Structures are given as structure tokens and as C-alpha cells.
Amino acid sequence: MHKPLEGKTILLTGSKKTQSIVDTIVQQGGEAVVCPLIRTVEVTEADDYERLASCKHYDWLIFTSQNGVEFFWKKIERHQFNLSQLSGKIAAVGEKTAALLERYGFTVHFMPSIFSADTFVKEFPSVSGESPKCLFIRGGLAKDTLKKGLPFPIDEWTVYTTVENKESIDKIVETVRNSRQPILIFASPSAVDCFHKYAVPEIGWNQAKIACIGHITKGAVEKYGAHVTYFPQKYTMQSVIEAIAKGEEM
């Protein structure tokens, strides 16, 4: 029986834990190659505990990524901070971000209809209340979409940063060269930039089809003159795999 991903080699370039996606790809007949082009590193400061304690003064804590949640939680565990001190609401961008928050015991009160910061700034003011006190728990490379787009000021706390992971480049180059139908999945502009910097001089942009999660990531690929083949409307890894399996090309 023919499986939808048979003959396809799918390269996963993100930093997220990908075992469930690997299993999905394999079940559908494809080969999954985990080759993260970025890795995340916690940003720690001497005043981390004070920053945690100040969270109780906010009406909203905003998370736009699983990494933000994970590194925020690391600080909570390290400083043995009592969650009952947090009385504000939680806003999350994306199902996976919300699911991780709930796994750690938080209740998510708002999630935008499309998992992007652009949609968040349009929809959040309708539920945030007037002049809310908000804290955005962010990564070092997060765009300023929230700060510029919301009609009220927000505070920000950078809890992690993203760095290049050049160790995956040789694996990517070799896999693309030796695969019949290689497909690269990008989930962030920083992964795209790393690929362009180190892999493109070896294999160019045209030896593999490109799949993207999110319009910011898609824009990063197109900035280099490359073509995005798979771009689902729902910004999740699962949706990208479904688009590839169904042959929904742009």
C-alpha cells in the first residue's frame, strides 16, 4: 500500500523537540532527518528572582513560543517560586505554546485565531481590558510586533536567546545531495539565515523543496530569492506535514 510520504526525505531544522513529528513522518512512509540549525540558550540575570516576583503585578503574561514557556518555567523551578502568587491572566500564541503552559499548571485565557504576532495585536485588545499591565516573556530574536502593534505599552523580559548550530550543516548538505526528494522544513527566520550562510554555498537553494511555518519565516526564505513550495494556513508542524503528504504545493 502506497504511503503519502514514501520516497520523501524530510529535514527538520528547528530546535523544538520533534519526536512526535518524526514518528508521524515515518508512519506515513517518509524518512525524517533531525538537523537543528538553531539552539536556544537561557538568559540568566542576577535579578531573575525579583523579575519573577514582579510578575504578580501584571494583568497579563504573554507567551509567543514554547521556548519562552520552557525557560520561564526553568526560572520558576530554580527559584522555587510559588505559582499561587500569580493572579494575572495568560495569553499564548499557538496551540503548542498553550498546551505547554497548561501542562505546567497555567490557565490560558486568550489565544489568537491565527498563530501569529500580527493577528495577536489585532485581536488581543478586545479582551485585554483598558490600559492593561502586560509582560511579554520573549526570546532575544523576537520581533517588536507586539511592542509596536498594541495600542498600549507592554514590558518585556528576555528569558532565552537563539544561537546558530553549525554542527548540522554537514548532515544537511550530505542528506540533500543523496536524497531523491529532499524537503527542508523551516520554522524560524534564524534557521533560514543559518542555512543560507553555511549550506547554500555548498548546495544552493534549489536542490530541495522548501516548507515554511509562518509568514515571517516564508518572507525570510523569499528574501534570498528562493521559492517556498509548502506553506499551510495553520502555522503548525503538523499542518506542514499534512500539506506535504497531500501534495498541496504553492
Automatic annotation (TrEMBL):
**Residues annotated as domain Tetrapyrrole biosynthesis uroporphyrinogen III synthase:** 21-241
**Which GO terms fall under molecular function for this chain's record?**
uroporphyrinogen-III synthase activity
Reaction catalysis annotation: hydroxymethylbilane = uroporphyrinogen III + H2O
Q: Does the keyword Lyase apply?
A: yes
Keyword set includes Lyase:
yes
UniProt keywords, alphabetically: Lyase, Porphyrin biosynthesis
Look up the domain of life of the source.
Bacteria
- Enzyme Commission number(s): 4.2.1.75
Record-linked InterPro entries: 4pyrrol_syn_uPrphyn_synt_sf, 4pyrrol_synth_uPrphyn_synth, UROS/Hem4
List, alphabetically, the Pfam families matched: HEM4
Q: Which pathway or pathways does this protein act in? A: Porphyrin-containing compound metabolism; protoporphyrin-IX biosynthesis; coproporphyrinogen-III from 5-aminolevulinate: step 3/4
Q: What does this protein do?
A: Catalyzes cyclization of the linear tetrapyrrole, hydroxymethylbilane, to the macrocyclic uroporphyrinogen III.
- The family this protein is said to belong to: Belongs to the uroporphyrinogen-III synthase family.
Q: What is this protein called?
A: Uroporphyrinogen-III synthase
